[in-house]
Amino acid sequence: MEKVGYNCRILTLVITVIGVVLLVGSCCADLEMDFYAESCPKAEQIVYDYVNHHIPNAPSLAASLIRMHFHDCFVRGCDASVLLDFTPATKNQTEKVATPNQTVRGFDFINRVKNLLEDECPGVVSCADIITLIARDAIVAIGGPFWRVPTGRRDGVISNASEALDQIPAPSSDFSTLYAHFANKGLNLKDLVLLSGAHTIGISHCPSFANRLYNFTGVGDGDPSLDSEYAANLKAKKCKSINSTTKVEMDPGSFRTFDLSYYTLVLKRRGLFESDAALLTDPRTRSIITQLVQGSIENFYQEFASSMEKMGKIEVKTGSFGEIRKHCAVVN
Length: 332
Ligand code: HEM
Ligand SMILES: *[C@@H]1O[C@H](CO)[C@@H](O)[C@H](O)[C@H]1NC(C)=O
Ligand SMILES: *[C@@H]1O[C@H](CO)[C@@H](O)[C@H](O)[C@H]1NC(C)=O
Ligand SMILES: *[C@@H]1O[C@H](CO)[C@@H](O)[C@H](O)[C@H]1NC(C)=O
Ligand SMILES: *[C@@H]1O[C@H](CO)[C@@H](O)[C@H](O)[C@H]1NC(C)=O
Ligand SMILES: CC(=O)N[C@H]1CO[C@H](CO)[C@@H](O)[C@@H]1O
Fold this sequence. Notes:
Elements: H1 2-27, H2 43-54, H3 60-74, H4 107-120, H5 127-141, H6 161-167, H7 175-184, H8 189-196, E1 203-205, H9 211-214, H10 228-237, E2 247-249, H11 261-267, H12 274-277, H13 283-294, H14 297-311
Helix pairs in contact: 2-4, 2-5, 3-5, 8-13, 8-14, 11-13
The structure holds protoporphyrin IX containing FE and 2-acetamido-2-deoxy-beta-D-glucopyranose (5 copies).
């Protein structure tokens, strides 16, 4: 009698476990390494080959591609919503037209890789995974850090310009604004400091920071937290007026090298944006920067890799959510 009851309880437990596994499996599967191993075995190699064929001729694109990945993940998760063009189906203007995206390049690059993958295995590889893989491979191609990219992301069907404005932090952000934006996405202060380290490569346009040179509080003043010699130099050479549209290397002299010099600049009060300078205004982030600068480049790469892997998992759609777009710029 007792044994039957016992077996019964075991059976119920087994059925419950199976039920839970099925439920979880269908709704919110995890990303996994080499997700396309069976459905499109050459997918990751095709991305890798394309990146390694083209990035050496256009290394500056690597910066734009990792930035695109960041902008994608911060709005509705890493779901390629950043790639959508405005059509009647999107109703509102899409993320692409929002201010932060106006300086993102590399959309054609993504589309060309997508076309190769559609030729190889139609309808299988998501645009969201393509952005994520390309960003990693492009940074590795310029000699930067490698990080793991588990795959299986699916593409979103909504892209909304005003959400991009709300969720991608502005360069004028202070510490608490940055803290809140990152915490909203499950990222901590260490991630904030490490991911900001991507500003060791790439360029900025003057409008992103010109107020710090010419009109910080609206009375024609400069930002006192920006090194005055550095500010004078920018005014004389690059951003000659507040309306200048010139480009500036964010990490002058080493803007193509993924190194620690961004952090060295920030400590010298030469971070370009208020958001870079803001990392010094909190003792916790300041101390993380000091430790990074004192540590090795290998340590930085390792820490950066783990924050990138975390960023690549923000609010991903997997399993039966979302879709696999046929064209990255439009929903199916
Ligand atoms: C912490 C908040 C952040 C703010 C406020 C911010 C803001 C900006 C701004 C305003 C620009 C220059 C745009 C222009 O005028 O051309 C820029 C460039 C860039 N950002 Fe950030 N960013 C942040 C975080 C990140 C993260 C997390 C990444 C990547 C992991 C990233 C990667 C880059 C790169 C690589 C560039 C150079 C782009 C190029 O050369 O085309 N940024 N960022
Ligand atoms: C987005 O679309 C909705 C409804 O179509 C409209 O009410 C709203 O004002 C739009 N917002 C923007 C920022 O365009
Ligand atoms: C876009 O986002 C705004 C809020 O940021 C919202 O008011 C609007 O309805 C959204 N549009 C669509 C089409 O979802
Ligand atoms: C500086 O900012 C103030 C207040 O926003 C504005 O009235 C003024 O025109 C600005 N000056 C310049 C040179 O842009
Ligand atoms: C910058 O542009 C604004 C508006 O386009 C104009 O009012 C202002 O005079 C310009 N400032 C300078 C310093 O050229
Ligand atoms: C790549 C892209 O679509 N960029 C767009 C950003 O927004 C500006 C202004 O709306 C467009 O002109 C760009 O084409």
